[in-house]
Amino acid sequence: METQVIKHVLLVCVFLWGTASYGAFAEDQSFAFLKTQGVHIIDSGGEPVFLRGISFGNRVWSDERIPRLHHGKEDYQRVRDLGMNLVRFYLNYRTLEADDNPYHYLDDGWGWIDTNIEWARQHGVYLILNMHVPQGGFQSHGTGWDLWRKPELQDRLIAMWKAIAERYKNESVILGYDLVNEPGVPKSKDEWKLLAQRLVDSIRKVDTNHPIIVERVNSINKKWINDKDMNFFRLKGDNIIYTFHTYDPYYYTHQGIPWDSAMKNCDGGSWPDKRKKYTRQFLAYSIDQFLAWGQRNNVPLYLGEWGLYKGNYAESKGGLNYIVDMLSVIEERKLTNTFHTYHEESFGLYLGDGELDPKNYNKSLKDIFENNF
After folding, report:
1. What is the CATH number of the domain that holds 286?
2. pLDDT computed for residue 29 by the predictor
3. Which of 79, 276, 289, 296 is deepest in the core (most CB within 10 A)?
4. CA separation, residue 267 to residues 75, 228, 262, 263, 359 (Å)
5. Which pTM was predicted?
């Protein structure tokens, strides 16, 4: 198994060497506002860019307002040492706003974001601000429906994003604003489309510099089924990036997760396995379905999340083979992406849910990133 992984890594390295000029970044990178042009994200000179990144989860699921133990300044250097130049920075609305005092934004919350912007600037790393837990609750599990049923919560989310955009409109370290993570609506895709348009319109009143990042609908009435448009929709406005997440095949990448009763004791097999279509070709087909929508609509796509539950890194499960195959598909398509996630017990490169321990990490995974990039 180890020999097979090394062989895969070497093949990908050879491929990357031949394509490294696209989206390469220099050690003395200066930040510039990025824009959209057709299916590309472009720099100030009009050249397409390709960013490689990772997510900072920031303990958003624990409702911890200021997750100071999750990471520090040195972790941005660790991101650069991995060969990456982008962090998707998860936010819980509680960092900035208390439910008993809506529309009043907390100074220490702004300070936490400001500090991370400076750390990112010092290490040549772009940030995407992602509202991972909006007012109304976490969306990914098909819950958090208060956001869709209580207009005042939508108004609060719109006001918060407008305040964020007003504060950071001239901050080029921020690549863009990722409006809501994995929106799960009760009734119709239009519920998210209408709110997303209101968010775009509000942000554009104060900020025309930054791309706005809009995710497709993740679920409708707790059904995770794609329509002919892969649950995407077009919005009115310029400089919009559309984003998707992929953990295909779910029964492989999420086998053993404790929070899903159907998966807790599931044996999802090992990678690769042609009998189960666990192949690089399957991953390419899965991603290309999303990219085809972007091509048809002449808009850029960004892969906001991909990764593996920790149990898949056991040698018998072949998780490292999966990572190498995914990287080769992503790199071949020059698809800006962020791996999920940097520090977390379940999916993290650095393991544990408390204070980050720099010695507690997935060495084999780290080696693959460093060798590839």
Report:
1. 3.20.20.80
2. 53
3. 79
4. 34, 31, 11, 8, 29
5. 0.93
Q: What is the pLDDT of residues 126-157, one digit of tens each?
A: 999 999 999 999 999 999 999 999 999 999 99
**pLDDT beyond 80 at 11:** no
Q: What is the amino acid identity at position 351?
A: L
Residue 140 CA to its chain's centroid (Å): 13
